[in-house]
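Morning, I've got a small favour to ask if you have a moment. I've dropped the whole record in just underneath, so have a look.
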Amino acid sequence: MPSLRGVASTGFVLTVTAALLHTTTPCSAQTLRGGIKAGAAFTSLSNIFVVTEGDEEESSVHTSAVYGGFVEWTLAPLWSFQPEVLITSVGADLPDTSLGDAILIRYLEFPVLIKLAPAANRTGLYLVAGPSVGVRLDASFQGTDEDLDDRVKRTNWAVTVGVGMQSRLWLVEGRFTQGLRSIGTNSLDQDVKTKSVLLLAGFRF
């Protein structure tokens, strides 16, 4: 069963996306567009023993879903400003431990991107880059009742770069997101940083 917090965060993303898309009226179609996107995230954590509060554990890449919406404001013929609202999960699989199946941290993420799209109104490639801040929704050992909220900071600051292909109606994209500071609350010197590769597909309106 999804948690109340998860249902609320999903509803928040859908509400914000709908509100943003409502602003993309025909009279502003040349400068303002919106869309939705979803896909898979392949994530890992550095120095996970800081979070497990034990010896360094073997871990592997964790795979989860990501989804959300975006708005794109044209700034110049080649450049646009693209804020997004996404629900993402970051973590690492723990295949050989008794702690659970994985460390899983869910974020409500706000990427603020600059987009270079030479073929903005035609099928072609584009580049995106910019900062992102994630607000933690919950953190836990997946497969157990133990939460990790007291071991993981509330926010995660990161930087994102990506490349994609789009037409007037659809897009496909790959992006890499690197955490910039430790998300662990432990006072140990080792940083716990997130790393994610996202494969996305979506529709533009």
In short: Confidence is low (pLDDT under 50) at residues 24-29. Residues 4-22 form the longest helix (19 residues). The first strand starts at residue 32 and ends at 45. The domain at 4-204 is CATH 2.40.160.20 (Porin).
